[in-house]
Amino acid sequence: MIKKNDVVSLSYSLKNSDGIELGKAGAEEAMNYLHGAGNIVRGLEEAIENLKVGDKKDVIVPPEKGYGDVDPKLLLKVDRSNFPKDMDIKLGMQFSSEMGGKDNVFTVEGVDGDQVNVNGNHPLAGQTLHFNIEITGIRDATEEELSHGHVHDGSHHH
């Protein structure tokens, strides 16, 4: 049964409330994470506690247990002059900026004359997430994984 400090492998499909697929991982490319380390959204982690290999479950995660509500303070209008002169600013372009003592990733949502509209919220903020999951593996975490707070399966870099 899944418990804190287990490495969990799961296959999943993720859809929004409109039924549009947002992501998936089949059994061949299962997602691995360290349970209890905050590596996945809280609502999903809480829902799969105590499941075992082979268990399947549909999980609905509200925004407050997912990527949070949309924070209006992260919807900004930035003067074009804050970007390099030769930069071709395009919709969907992302950049990182320090704000409030932490790095935020901002996405360009529009350009209106000399104003660039950017959004520092997670792309899934404000959305209810619909997961369909299957637990494909559970193992004890290594000491190194526990000390680093994530799984070492070749997908993380230091």
Secondary structure blueprint with pairings:
Layout: E1 6-15, E2 21-25, E3 31-34, H1 42-48, E4 56-61, E5 75-79, E6 94-99, E7 102-112, E8 115-119, E9 129-140, H2 143-148
Antiparallel strand pairs: 1-2, 1-3, 1-9, 4-9, 5-8, 6-7, 7-8
Question: Could you characterize what this model shows?
Answer:
The chain is mainly beta and 158 residues long. The protein folds into two domains: 6-67 and 126-148, Chitinase A, domain 3 (Roll), CATH 3.10.50; 72-119, Thrombin, subunit H (Beta Barrel). It has helices at residues 42-48, 143-148; strands spanning 6-15, 21-25, 31-34, 56-61, 75-79, 94-99, 102-112, 115-119, 129-140. The strands form two sheets. Strands 1, 2, 3, 4 and 9 form a five-stranded antiparallel β-sheet that branches. A four-stranded antiparallel β-sheet has the order 5-8-7-6, with no helix packed on it. Strand 6 and strand 7 form a beta hairpin. The longest helix is centred in the N-terminal third of the chain and has 7 residues, at 42-48. It is elongated and about 55 Å long. The model has no long low-confidence stretch (mean pLDDT 92).
